[in-house]
From TrEMBL:
NADP(+) binds at A73, V74, K75, P76. Residues 11-102 form the Pyrroline-5-carboxylate reductase catalytic N-terminal domain. Pathway: Amino-acid biosynthesis; L-proline biosynthesis; L-proline from L-glutamate 5-semialdehyde: step 1/1. It catalyses: L-proline + NAD(+) = (S)-1-pyrroline-5-carboxylate + NADH + 2 H(+); L-proline + NADP(+) = (S)-1-pyrroline-5-carboxylate + NADPH + 2 H(+). GO terms for biological process: L-proline biosynthetic process. This is Pyrroline-5-carboxylate reductase. Catalyzes the reduction of 1-pyrroline-5-carboxylate (PCA) to L-proline. Belongs to the pyrroline-5-carboxylate reductase family. NCBIfam families: proC. Pfam families: F420_oxidored, P5CR_dimer.
Length: 273
């Protein structure tokens, strides 16, 4: 995997998102020898990470350990306490790849001193190689370090690099949190089916398979989503009735989604601290 080319990978925080990325990397050939993890929780699944060094705290890392990439995957609220332990790695041979919501490049520069920093926003479908990440580098990131980060991120899905860091708060709202909205759609669809008289387990099966199938279709198709929607909507048929509700100017899905994304974008800005 290209991400290993700079030297060992250090993953700081292996929870839901760090763990999803690790699953994706390992499925694509990241070997145990190339990765170390610092993660305080004793998750039993770490026992299955053949050859990966998992440390409960940074003092478990060997004195001569020199990571090429440090992936910062702890909560934004933990970052102040975590960063001082990794400041010693700041230098031309190490790039810090943050996935934390809200935390800005300026924040990391202040905490780490002169350091190569990539701020990124992935999402949990990375676990199955279908993630979406947007990344922005600071001026100290070398072309090789950018390539290494791109390799790590591209190994678990699609990657877009941007120059304008100001976009990342809205990215966080749309694609970072996006899987949660889609899973909520499954929950709502299943519950609505149950209320329409379907057995709960059948309704959930319909909702899951329909969302998964629609995702696969949009991925495989070059048609716009609106065309795929119209393909389902027979004139004067059943879908048209549902869409009249969902696409109402007031109380429909668009104004609701716009409000939701604005709220998440605002929260991302607040998390900058
Ligand atoms: N979840 C998601 O879908 C996404 C999350 N993110 C970002 O990813 C980051 C992690 O989020 P998420 O995975 O959801 O959160 P989690 O709480 O699941 O993961 C964070 C992990 O870091 C561990 N941790 C706490 N303190 C330390 C420490 N000092 N050193 C090393 N590890 C530590 C936590 O252990 P313990 O639980 O024992 O405290 C936990 O396992 C956040 O910054 C978030 O903004 C970005 C995109 C999507
Ligand atoms: O909810 C959060 O703050 C994180 C960032 C995007 C997805 N999860």
């Amino acid at each position: 995997m290209a991400g290993n080319s700079m030297g060992p990978l250090l993953l700081v925080g292996c929870g839901k998102m760090g763990g999803a990325m690790l699953d994706g990397w390992r499925a694509r050939g990241l070997t145990g020898a190339g990765v170390a993890i610092v993660e305080p929780s004793a998750d039993p699944r770490f026992a299955a990470l053949d050859g990966v060094a998992v440390h409960a705290a940074p003092d478990g890392l060997a004195a001569d350990f020199r990571p090429g990439v440090v992936v910062l995957a702890v909560k934004p609220q933990s970052m102040d306490a975590v960063l001082p332990h990794y400041r010693r790695f700041a230098g031309p041979d190490t790039v810090f790849l943050s996935i934390a919501a809200g935390k800005t490049i300026a924040y990391f520069e202040q905490a780490l001193g002169p350091a190569a920093i990539v701020r990124s926003m992935p999402n949990t479908p990375a676990a199955v190689g279908q993630g979406m990440t947007v990344a922005v580098p600071n001026g100290a990131v070398s072309p090789a370090q950018r390539q290494a980060c791109d390799g790590l991120l591209a190994a678990v899905g699609d990657v877009a690099w941007v120059e304008d860091e100001g976009l990342i708060d809205a990215v966080t709202a749309v694609s970072g949190g996006g899987p949660a909205y889609v899973f909520l759609l499954i929950e709502c669809l299943a519950e609505a089916g149950r209320e329409a008289g379907l057995p709960a387990d059948l309704s959930m099966r319909l909702a899951r398979t329909t969302v998964a199938g629609s995702g696969a279709l949009v991925q495989a198709s070059t048609d716009p989503a609106a065309t795929l929607r119209r393909n389902v909507t027979s004139p004067n048929g059943t879908t048209q009735e549902a869409l009249a509700v969902l696409m109402a100017e007031e109380g429909g899905l668009q104004p609701l989604m716009t409000r939701a994304i604005a709220a998440a974008t605002r929260r991302s800005r607040e998390l900058a601290g």
